[in-house]
Write a structure and sequence with these properties.
The protein has 348 residues and is of the alpha/beta class. It contains 12 helices and 7 strands.
């Protein structure tokens, strides 16, 4: 009995010592894996890096993964240069429903450009935008959306386009709520971006939206510089004029960064496999496969929009951010499906 008593006292002393270590080092804390000896895993966090996340399997998995790949004594340790994280934007970092923010920008661009294009009053798809007959991207065919995209993006330098997008975003609000679009960035995701940066990750946005559109706000809103934004793009042409020159967008699509193109563009732009990928739709599946299907086991996550009270509930039948195959593949590929309803304490 005395031996057991001494062992119990020693256990308390160990726990107390680890607790002191946590306080002195301000270590991040979460549930430990049984075999992991990293003291950070045994600490109850002094400062929770993800306070807008509810305690649950998703949060524990994120914290455990990050702790393991940043702990030099862990067999899963990853050198800082290789800590690449990729995030989709629409529906992953900010709200995409009932329509993409870039779609609202394109429609407003059509209205701004209309005085110089009287023919648009009787030419589709522009006439429907000007008359208000069709007011969401889901009301148009893919071909029509591409036509609107090219028309509203071309014959501008990248700087001119980015300036237009930034000015529009600074003054525009959601037509349904009257709230600025930038207020719809998800608070739990902003915390996750900050946490990963603190732990030495280099973060890329890999979006189906136009990369220059997202670059117009990515640094200010997410802390992600423009050179770390990968997305859809219009072809560029170098134009030289006497002693000046410019790189100008021409009316032709270079790439639509969705589906398999996401994995291809990640390889082309980074030269590395991500070890952490986060999306929300079937268009993000190849990005997650590219991350979790290699020699090094990465982490893949999908936001599931299942909260009709605080946001919207949509998945396999949605025209925006459709998530069907991803839900079915998550178990096989060991992806984490994050329930916005149960895993997030706050949404915005």
């Amino acid at each position: 009995m005395e031996v057991k008593r001494d062992m119990k006292i020693n256990s308390y002393l160990v726990i107390f010592a680890v607790a002191l270590l946590c306080v002195s080092s301000s270590s991040m804390a979460f549930e430990p894996k049984a075999i992991d000896t990293n003291p950070k895993l045994y600490c109850q966090s002094v400062v929770d890096p993800l306070p807008s996340w509810n305690e649950g399997s998703a949060k524990i998995a994120i914290l455990s993964f990050v702790a393991n790949v940043t702990n030099e004594s862990n067999p899963n340790y990853v050198e800082p240069d290789e800590r690449i994280a990729t995030f989709d934007n629409d529906g992953t970092l900010w709200r995409e429903y009932p329509d993409y923010v870039q779609s609202r920008f394109m429609f407003d661009r059509v209205k701004d450009m209309a005085p110089d294009h009287s023919e648009w009053n009787s030419t589709e798809p522009f006439s429907s935008i000007l008359s208000g007959k069709r007011f969401a991207s889901s009301n148009f065919s893919t071909k029509e959306v591409m036509q609107i995209y090219v028309t509203t993006s071309s014959n501008l330098t990248s700087d001119e386009y980015t300036s237009l997008a930034r000015n529009w975003l600074n003054r525009s609000k959601d037509p349904h709520s009257g709230i600025p679009y930038t207020n719809y960035a998800y608070k739990p995701m902003l915390e996750l971006l900050s946490y990963l940066r603190t732990e030495g990750f280099k973060i890329y946005i890999v979006t189906g939206g136009d990369e220059d559109f997202v670059r117009s706000f990515s640094d200010e809103l997410y802390g992600i510089p423009p050179e770390q934004v990968i997305g859809s793009a219009i072809k560029l042409r170098f134009i030289e004029n006497n002693t000046s020159c410019s790189v100008t967008k021409i009316p032709e699509i270079l790439v639509i960064d969705d589906g398999q193109e996401k994995a291809i563009e990640i390889q082309l732009n980074t030269g590395r496999h991500p070890i952490f990928a986060y999306g929300n739709s079937d268009g993000d599946i190849p990005m997650l496969q590219f991350t979790t299907g290699g020699n090094r086991k990465g982490m893949g996550l999908l936001n599931h929009h299942d909260d009709p009270i605080r946001e919207y509930a949509y998945d396999n039948v949605s025209a925006v951010g459709r998530l069907d195959k991803g839900l079915k593949m998550a178990g096989e590929w060991d992806w984490h499906v994050v329930s916005m309803k149960t895993d997030w304490k706050y949404v915005f």
